[in-house]
Amino acid sequence: MKKLSVLFAAVMMVVSVGMAKAQKIATLDVIGVLNVMPEKKKADTDLKAFLDTKQAEIKKKADAAQAKFQQYQSEAAKKTAEENTAREAEMKKLSDEIQQMNDKAQKDFVAKQDAAYEPIEKKLNDAVSKVAKANGYDYIMDANSSAFVFKGGPDATAAVKKELGVQ
């Protein structure tokens, strides 16, 4: 029984020493850092241009389909039932093509976005890791997170920006 008490006391001492070690926590304005990175600005510009191009292509096709639809509606009374049925099938096909273009554009955009942002995220994460190690931070948390109730620790944003070479 005495050995058990000594063992329990030793375990409690080890646990309390481990808990007594204060952890250094810093915050980081991730969005603020990303918004000043030239790579992010270029990626955003490229992605916007890509999206604008895709939207213009889809709009052109949709406008052509809308004009054809209006033409078919105005001529419907003068056409036979078979011609109107064929025109309806053609309009359905055009509608499906536009929907497929939309779906493909979204998939292409997401893939392009992932490819563009991956090296930026890696660069940011590497800088954060360097700053954390250099300053002895155990944790660096996003300052924009709504999970924070209190932010009183050091802010690592300036150090990460310096590491990245951005202002």
UniProtKB/TrEMBL annotation:
Q: Which GO terms describe its biological process?
A: protein stabilization
Note the superkingdom of the native organism.
Bacteria
The protein's matches in InterPro entries, at most eight in alphabetical order, are given as: Chaperone_Skp, Skp_dom_sf
Output one GO MF annotation.
unfolded protein binding
Pfam families given in the database record:
OmpH
Q: GO CC terms for this protein?
A: cytosol
Does Kinase appear among the keywords? no
Question: Which of UniProt's keywords are assigned here?
Answer: Coiled coil, Signal
Q: Does the keyword Signal apply?
A: yes
List the coiled-coil residues: 55-104
Q: Where is the signal peptide?
A: 1-20
| Family assignment from sequence similarity | Belongs to the Skp family.
Q: What is this protein called?
A: OmpH family outer membrane protein
